[in-house]
Amino acid sequence: MSIRARRGRTVRWAVPAAAIAVIAGAIGAGPVIAAVQGDPALPERTAEQLLASAAQAGRAGLKPMSGTVMQTASLGLPGLPEVPGMGGSSPVALLSGSHELKVWYGGADKVRFALPGRMSETDLITNGDQVWLWQSDENRATRVKAGSGERGEEAARAHEALPTATTPQQLAQQLLRRVGADTVVSVSNTEKVADRAAYQLAFAPKDPSSLVKEVKLALDGETLVPLRVQVYARSAAEPAFEVGFTSVTFSPPAAENFTFTPPTGAKVEETSLAELLKERRPERGEGFEDAEKLKSEVGTVGEGWTTVAVIPVSEQELTGQGQGEGSSGAGIGAIGDALLKSAKPISGTWGSGKVIQTKLVSALLTDDGRLLVGAVTPEKLSEAAGRK
Amino acid sequence: MSRTPTDAGLAADVPGSRVGGPGGGSRREVPGAELSIVTSGLTKRFGSGQVAVDALDLAVPSGSVFGFLGPNGSGKTTTIRMLLGLVAPTAGEWRLLGTPMPGGVGGVLSRVGALVEGPAFYPYLSGEANLRRYDAADPSADPRTVSTRIGLALERVGLAAAAGKRYRAYSLGMRQRLAIAATLLGPRELLILDEPTNGLDPQGTREVRGLVKEIAAEGTTVFVSSHLLAEVEQMCSHVAVMRTGRLVAQGPIADLRASETVRIRVETPDVEEAAAVLAGLGLPEIRLGDGDVSAALGAGLPERVCAALVTGGVAVRGLAVQRPTLEDVFVGLTGEGFDVDG
Amino acid sequence: MSTVSGKEAVSTEKATRAVPDHDPARGRDQAMTAGQAAGGRPIPPPRAVSAPRAWLRLLGSEVGLTFRRPRNLAMLGVLTVIPVLIGIALRMFAGTGGDGTGAPMIFERITGNGLFLTFAALSLLVQLMLPVCVAVVAGDSIAGEAGIGTLRYLLAAPAGRTRLLAVKYACVVVFCLAAVTAVALSALLVGLLLFPAGPITLLSGGTIPFLDGVLRIGVVVLYVTAGMAALGAVALALSTLTEVSVGAIASTVVIVIAAQVLRAVPQLSVLQPYLLTEWWSGFDGVLRDPVAIGDMGQGLLVFAAYAAVFCSIAWARFTGKDITA
User: Fold this and answer.
1) Could you tell me the residue ranges of all domains in chain A?
2) Structural domain harbouring C255
């Protein structure tokens, strides 16, 4: 009886154990299935062939597609304060957590990005010569006037108005532009991204002072469309930053996705792209002009993966004291404060300052008013500071 | 009477062989078929290591009113909980109405009415709604006859007038009656009543006793647990005695009584002479007291003793036949007393 | 029993009719044949009640008990009143708070379209109020019965442990539906009374007809009910672990609050997709164009996973538990 009872209990608790196992299995099944059946998925290609084909496919233009892009950042930043008024469309929000972006691509002049927020949504819809930015939490529809420039170019730049609308394609372009001789490239053909067989290129910097261990780029096996970009830090097994499709369909999206009529009762505005960019990105500094000014002052030390940017700046400027114009300015200030609190003092032949290290980026604020930033170790920053 | 052997070696011969209930003469092929409750080696050890019930071998004949006697904390309630499948035994097996348990719980318990450890009802419902609730829990209860059955049950316990009153407003005695009514909702072959007279006044206690007898007369087996000796003595045809988790005796009450001899007691100043006369009559176990003499009467007739004493010139101040009470029996069995009063 | 009189004779006679096999020998015979037939399952009595009907009867009893209980009625009442208060407050102070103070835009939408009150009320209440109400009912379901001792009588009736647990959970789901519906209906009614109604502007900027909007509210009600039912499973599992219902209720509420806190910590974003609370507000998918079926489907999967795991834990615990209360 007691044995029977004990066995009965074991059998009973096997039920929840099995339920948990099945669910855990379902969650973990993606990678497992990929590992099991992925091996002979795609014909072998060398990295050079892939890069060449990908470049060719990129020039030929993207096929119509739609999908969901997930961006996950785990940069190891010290605790960022919650900044009021910063919805899912604020670029600062991208520094941590996961963000979803929906993409509908019907052609170069038919693009829709949607950033879902909680009970809100930000949409950027490009349809021919019409570009609309819709922000549901402000009930505001902004029509972007066609500028003097080429129509397609204008549309292509429109996504800059929505800095969080980062797709793997955009990142892949930037990545491929920067790959140089200081990189080890390897390739695998067994990846699976968004349920599609994919090639994966891994770019690893040769310089050991780089905080980046490698950057992985997954290309769709059939269309060679970039499906995922992952940045791995030396200090962690999980990617520090990842942008990739979680689901993707290579078929033309429905036409309704690209039509937009401002709803009744909404604020309708009209603006040029330049105006819009200025308005949407006040975080760069006091304004667009300031940002331009800043750009001219930035110097760089080193090149490739270990480039260090040197920016003349003061602590007050960083923490946003005396600025406080608008919620986003104050937000940047608050973040600066939080970062400075976690900074460690450092000194060298060049003087002394404070250094902050995250998984991917180190920053050094010298007491003589320079900010050095780079994806390198603090020692390298210190060395760069010495080089003036 | 039969003392239940507590060692495992003798446990096997308990069911059927020593206990004969009313109509128990016919032995059947299916073991335990004429027994409403059979347990063998039923044991409950709680997590703390405390043994609440230790290798219990009960045999409750069908049709009997079976008293389950023991002081508070002797394991009666734990036994009842095990019988009803509320608590899983650590070891041992049991059958209810011939069905092996706990596998047969679903089918058998519909035919068993149970009162376990006092009444428990929803305070914000009326007495009637409470009974309806319990009836709904029984999968074999017929919803079409529920009102009739509830009405009957309430009437039997004398609560018909208070049926619509909220349970919260019931007195202790009414609550106990409602709990008894809940055991009578359907046709039952076995009633298990745990301390049914708890909280009742003497009048209520008498009524419950009457009700139990009445139910038993309909052929239902009644298993009554109690810590009150007098109650068991008045209601039951059979009895089992628990002491610290162990069964110390079980059997028909008459058999238990018969095990202790009837004595005759003579009150007299002439102690010596009286003892001589009793010895002359061949009565054994003569005990001399201060102003009285007693002897085992056995099959002897008291009137003959009386005549002999008078003839022998013994000054008889009083003459009494002492039939043993259950208490005497149990004190003899367990070496300790029970609460005689309630 | 109280009166030995002619009345009792009548009752006995009736009882005799109700108890056809009162002859002990016959009763035993039946018991015996029953024991022999089909491995211990008794032959059903002539007036056999089918299992589904008996199950529904117990569910009816359970639901009746839940909705007759003053405490539960009070909770439903509070849930109904909150949308009314939101509506009245917005009506009275409309336009004074709309200066970009960071208040959710959804509340300002209400003044333009009454239907939005439903979405706003649900998105507000789904964070804590609805979960607390569900926790109270589900956390009390087993522990409450154990606490007042009725559990032992239900099981001795015999309700059957699996059957009782299934009925309890079904009743929790019914309560979830009732609570969510109460909020939605009250908000819908108040919204239509106090504010203009008409075609709804979706979060994506598109517009759908009014009736389509009402239909989507129905979808939202079902989605939120599913989310609450998943929490109900958690509370039910906790309820089987204790005999003190307050303990089960409090720990459920603590779990909800802890999950909300975890959600707010960006460093723990890895955990977020696995948190129940993360998906509760996912019903805003119906206000997108196209409807975010994928996201809501994912939410429903998470709810189903939670319900499956915690119901099975509750079952394993409850069927093996010693009922000592």
Assistant:
1) 1-37, 47-272, 282-387
2) 51-319
* A309-356 pLDDT, tens digit each: 888 776 555 554 444 444 444 455 566 666 677 778 888 888 888 888
Give the separation between CA A105 and CA B168, rounded to whole angstroms.
69
The DSSP element (H or E) to which A155 belongs, if any, is helix A151-158
Looking at the fold, whether C24 and C85 belong to one and the same domain comes out as: no
Residue C279 lies in a domain: yes
Question: Is residue A145 classed as helix, strand or coil in its secondary structure?
Answer: strand
Residues C34 and C112 in one domain: no
Q: Are A333 and A326 in contact (CB under 8 A)?
A: no
User: Which residues of B lie closer than 8 Å to A, measured between beta carbons?
Assistant: 88-93
Of the residues A104, A125, A136, A261, the best mutation for testing chain C's interface (the one with the most C CB atoms within 10 Å of its CB) is: A136
The answer to whether the CB atoms of B93 and A1 lie below 8 A apart is: yes
CB–CB contact B93 A2 (8 Å): no
Span C87-131, pLDDT tens digits: 998 888 765 544 444 445 667 777 778 888 999 899 999 999 999
Closest chain C residue by Cα to residue B35: C28
Using CB atoms, which residue from A20, A85, A121 is nearest to C288?
A121
Q: Name residue, tokens 């499709």.
A: A245
How far A123 CA lies from chain B's nearest CA (Å)? 55
Residues C35 and C57 in one domain: no
Any domain includes C238: yes
Name every chain A residue with its beta carbon within 8 A of the beta carbon of C272: 97-98
Domains of chain B, earliest start first: 8-258 (3.40.50.300), 261-323 (3.30.70.980)
At C51, list the tokens: 């299992």
Q: What contacts 24+ positions apart, CB below 8 Å, involve A44-50? A: A44/A189, A45/A187, A45/A189, A45/A199, A46/A187, A47/A185, A47/A186, A47/A187, A47/A201, A50/A187, A50/A199, A50/A201, A50/A219, A50/A224
- Whether cis (ω within 30° of 0) applies to the bond prior to C290 is yes
| Residue B170 φ/ψ, nearest 5 degrees | -75, 150
DSSP B254: H
CB-based contact, A11 to chain B, within 8 Å: no
CB within 8 Å of B95: residues ≥ 6 apart? B32, B35, B37, B38, B39, B101
The Cα of B58 is separated from the nearest Cα of chain A by a number of Å equal to 17
CATH code of the region A47-272:
2.50.20.10
Distance from CA of B224 to the nearest CA of A (A): 27
Domain count, chain C: 2
ipTM of the complex: 0.80
Q: Examine the domain organization and report whether C33 and C59 are in the same domain.
A: no
Residue C262 sits in the same domain as residue C304: yes
Residues on chain B touching A1 (C-beta within 8 angstroms): 89-93
List residues bridging with A97 in a β-sheet: A73
**Residue B163 CB neighbours (<10 A):** 19
> Shortest Cα distance from C163 to chain B (angstroms)?
9
Tell if the CB–CB gap between B139 and C45 is shorter than 8 Å. Answer: no
pLDDT tens digits, one per residue of B104-121: 888 899 999 999 989 999
